[in-house]
Each structure stands twice: as C-alpha cells, then as structure tokens.
Amino acid sequence: MNKPTFSERCFDVFNGLFLIALMIATIYPLIYIAFASVSDASRLMAYKGALWKPLGFSLDAYSNVFANPMILKGYGNTFFVVLVGLVLNILLTSLGAYSLSRKSLKYRKQIMLFIVFTMFFSGGLIPFYLTVKGVGLANSLWALIIPQAINTFNLILMKTAFEAIPDALEESAKIDGANDLVILFRIVLPLSMPVIAVMLLYYGVSHWNSWFHAMIFLQDRSLYPLQLILREILLQGEASGMGASADDMAMLAATLKYATIIVATVPILLVYPFLQKYFVKGALIGAIKG
C-alpha cells in the first residue's frame, strides 16, 4: 500500500477539521436550547454570548408548561394522529406504489403524469378547506389524517424502491399461486424494510410537527394536537392556563420558549436512532432505480 502523499494528508486534516466544525455548528443550537431551558430565567435574560452550561438550574419553565392541562391532551391527540396516520399512510402508499410499479399496468405513464402534476399545482387552500368540510371531516382529528394519507413524493420514492426488486421473485410467487396482495405483503414489503423505515420517519415527523391544518380545521380545543397547544403557549402567552402571574410572565418567557421546543422535539429524537440504520439505505434505494 502506498503511503499517502503530503497533499492527501493535508486534505484529510482539513476534511476532519471541517467536519468537526460542521458537527459543532449543527449540535450547538440543540445544546443551547437544552441548557437555556433549565437555566435561571433572570440570569439567562442578563446573559450575552455563547451558552456552554446552564446558568443555575431551574425547572420552572417545564413545570409551567406541564401545568397547562391541555399539554397531556395535546400529546394524546398527537399520538393518535401519528399512530393511526402512519398505519393509513404505509398501507395506502404501499398499495399505490405497488400498483404503479407493475409493468403490466395500463396507462401507467399517464397516471404517473397526473400524480406528479399534483406536486407542482394544487387547488389552493380555500377549495381544500371546502372539500374537507364538505365530506364532514371538519373539527375532527380525521381531518389531520385522511387528506394527508398519501404524499406524492413518498409514493414515487416507494414505487422506485419496489421497481428495484427482481421480477423473478414475483414470477416464481405467481407460479406458486400467489396473487398480488400476497406478493405485496409477503415478498415486496419484507424486502423493502429500509424504504418502509424512511416512510415511517417522513410521515411520522410530518404528522408530529403539523399544526397549520389543525389550526384551520379544528375549533374544539380538546382536539388540539401538541404543536398547536405549544403555539398557543408561545404566541398567545396563556399565563392563566400555565399558572403564572403577570409579573412573572416576562421573566418566564426567557426560558419558556426553550422548554416548549424540548417538549416538542424529544420524542422524535428518541425514535430516530432506531430508524437511522435504515434511513440512508432506504432513501438511496428509493431515489435510484436499480
């Protein structure tokens, strides 16, 4: 093996330093938010500059966030939307992707053209609202699930992944008497677990972070998802709902916004490590036709 040249060693050193700097730039905002959320509010307001450790220690921001009785209700609503939504998303997206990946499907190119068309053009917000209201989904958690049942980009990603599966597997299964549903659920999906993991992450994060559709379609506060509750806490300053007095509100706001970010982000951060090993492989399988 040839020894690396001076220029190659210089490149490796520069590349390593650049990646370390990039890692710090990526992680530091999370570190800042975590430390700020448990810092003493008065000291945080007076502090300027980078934050590398908590300024004192106080859980007042978290206690005030969870003092809001709607927080746990929001968590429950969000978990319902995420879990039920994921089941519907994966089921319908896999059915659509499998159908479109079959070379025997008539007018496949024309159908794909109409599907891709929806990525660039839509009817607009008002027709969307009137449609959801017209079918009776307004002021229901189903308004956050059914209209988002299939994402066009995810459908194309899964379709491309299904097309990479050798045709011989399907042909041998048909010889043994398997129909399309058996082929999909017993052969195609088990062989596509990396792309399924990507779908779970994409759809799950989308459902978890969604607040705009909830703000449009929901009038009953008991149906609000977590993100909409946190939005109220941050933007409307529900001091009475959080048990904070008017004098304390300005001080509390210094740490409150960071606590709400942690409350909204931690569940997703805990799930990602279990999907990370499939993520890159699944994204590449779905992005490049084999």
TrEMBL record:
Signal peptide: none annotated. Residues 75-270 form the ABC transmembrane type-1 domain. One of its GO terms (cellular component) is plasma membrane. Pfam families: BPD_transp_1. The chain crosses the membrane at residues 12-35, 79-99, 111-130, 142-162, 183-205, 258-275. GO terms for biological process: transmembrane transport. It is found in: Cell membrane. InterPro entries: MetI-like, MetI-like_sf. Belongs to the binding-protein-dependent transport system permease family. This is Carbohydrate ABC transporter permease. It comes from Paenibacillus thalictri.
